[in-house]
## 1
Amino acid sequence: MSAHVRELLALAGARALDPSETERVEEHLPECAACAVEAGEWRRLAEGLGRLQAPKPSRALVARTVEAVEAQLAERAERAWNRAALGFLVAFAWTLAVVAWVVLDLVTGVLALRLDRPVGLTAAWYAAYVIAGWLTAGAAAVLLGRRSHEEGRIA
Amino acid sequence: MDPDGDDAARLRRGDTAGLTGLMGRHQDRLFRYLLRLVGDEAVAEDTFQQTWVRVAERIGRYDASRPFAPWLFTVARNLALDHLRRRRPESLDEVDEPAAPAGVEGDPLVHAVARERAGRVATALLALAPLDREVLSLRFEEELALPELAQTLGVPVPTAKARLYRALARLRERMLAAAPAEDWR
């Protein structure tokens, strides 16, 4: 019995040899009765493994799984929508701030002309107004986010 | 594109029809694989559900140019091994006491019938270590070729081959201890 070929018999039964190894085994088996017997044992073992029975997942399990995945997909869609909505609102708010600055500048300019005297530091007042607005919005977003996180944990 | 690729693309867009298609084609083999790996039906059920949730969550990372099954099995494998490591952190390469089949405890007659049906190979397989059961299941039940098997295990092909050989040798040893090779049919 060749030790080198014998080591290959288990994998031959599993059909996991490369072509050159398979050729070596096939050439050897007709010449060696002991290896031929052992090759038969490995083949029977492989056949037994191929015939194993295993239960399938129950319908209830499949239904539960689909339900869990659907919930996960819904959550993912909601997160994506929230991100898109937040992006739109931020862009909208900045556009509004810039447009409002131009309008305010025009109005105060016209007013100053009519009254024939300066109305005040328009740019400074407007910058303060915008900063206060963004700080308030930021604080509100943090509070809402915390509340949403708490609700998610409770649910 | 293959059906798995189509369904993966649907699932990526959030369409549950994609999930239905993928589950329809892979649920039986996935459950069988998990059952062999964890050796416990309740744990296999939990891991099965977690696997599909994880698949839906990470479908964006799946490379559609490659076969879906090895990727799916890798996701399942990681979850199952996490569970096994929590249960017995020492080693997954050592023999564990096999879990009793669900619903047969306490009734000797039912137990005897179940054992009879399970057959010698299944009994010997249950007595192997999780990683040995896994490699045998992937090769013989899921019929993965060595390159796919290696990809699923996350090891090079020669290592996968060595693991397969070692698992077969251990199974044969257990089978021979129970009955002579002539009786294996």
Note: Chain B has a mean pLDDT of 83.
## 2
Amino acid sequence: MEKNGHATFLDEVASIPACDKINECIQCGVCSGSCTTAEHWEHPPRKVIAMVRAGMKDELLKSNSVWFCVSCYLCTARCPRDIKPANIMHGLESIALREGYKPPTSTTTMYRTFADSIVQYGRVYEFGMMFTYFLKTNPLAALRMLPMALSLLTHRRMPLTPKKVKGKDELNTILNKLASGGGR
Amino acid sequence: MEATGAPVEESIKAIAKPLDIELLELEDWTCCGSSPFSGVNKVKAVGITARVLAQAEKTGLDLVTPCSSCYTILREADDLIKDDHKLAEKVREALYAVGLSYNGTVKVRHIIEVIYHDIGPDNLALKVVRPLTGLKVACYHGCQQVRPDYGLDDSELPDWIDSLAKSLGAEPVNFPLKARCCGSSLVISESDLALDLIHKLLQNALDNGAQCMISTTCPLCHTALDAYQMLVNSKFKAGFNMPIIAITQLIGIALGLDFKAAALGGNIISPKKLLDPYFKAKPLAAKVESVTS
């Protein structure tokens, strides 16, 4: 029995919105062949789906796979079974984050920082998000971004203060309500 | 949109009036969540997107976005709320807690689709006063704008932006990677991977003789190609200096707006030198009177 009351890892994945067609995969490999970044994945998309069905949860979620999905949806455009692999990858990311897996990529921190920024301000506060992200991961890596950030700043494309959005309180009530209602 | 995407936003506002499009900014809008929120929690992601849909429904108007990620996320949330009854019930309760409801009547549209369908290349051509004759352009459509299930145009080799650019007098070049991803969603956390993708796009455009890239209105694509070009140059020891002009900026130029009014001042790779001959040429009389004249 998996956490959250699901009988198998496969059931857990299939219960996430837009991931329910995973059982219809025929393992044709069009997703791996189409994937923009497949060469970086420890286990490419087709194999990811096979691993979910084989219950290889730890091995999959400890790896860098799924975190290199750039959401380009080329796999989803070409999938002959319409299983929406890109959505399954994001579903797997959410399980990995919730259950504390530590895959070897800082995209995990970037996603959390991005989502936190929305929760805190209602909209993404880009400067603050990048600042927090680099502080939490590798501040030295920010040096590489510096010329680009300065250029955005001088072109008035990188405000240093967040915008105040009234709707953020409403947004937080919605999120709390979904958390208490068993949403994940 | 209002920060790194400012040039695109300003260019859309600038061309709306001459194109007879009335734009109302959705009051008090919040972020759609994009892909990262789905990677954190899908149910919550649909919840925050639903707030935007509910706000839009109150206006009774179409919900138009220039961002390809917003477009895909909004369309998907709209479908999920309609098809997944369990999820719909959760979202309904959450919206109810803040006095909102969503009944599924909002039509989510991409600004490129509005320009392409509601105005069309032929009508656009009639309004051109500054034809961009001889300008060789690579038309970048990007990924999410053309992908299923909500994709506009062909998902492998789209040509809407090519048709629009052609109607302005420009010459689209062959650009095989026009619907490939720019990697912007990972440009901060996996920079090398994203810079590699941006490099491929720039090289492909250059190899096919493009003088500039005409990009979709997605602020993520535009920023990745424009602002991160200098990082591509350092990583690959390359000398790219390719202006990335959003199609809405190009329309502005062709409709007779000056450099500043077409919102070109915010572009990191300045298109000034490339466009100077066009700005200096005497504008033609439009074939039809625009509403402003």
Note: Residues 107-180 of chain A form one domain.
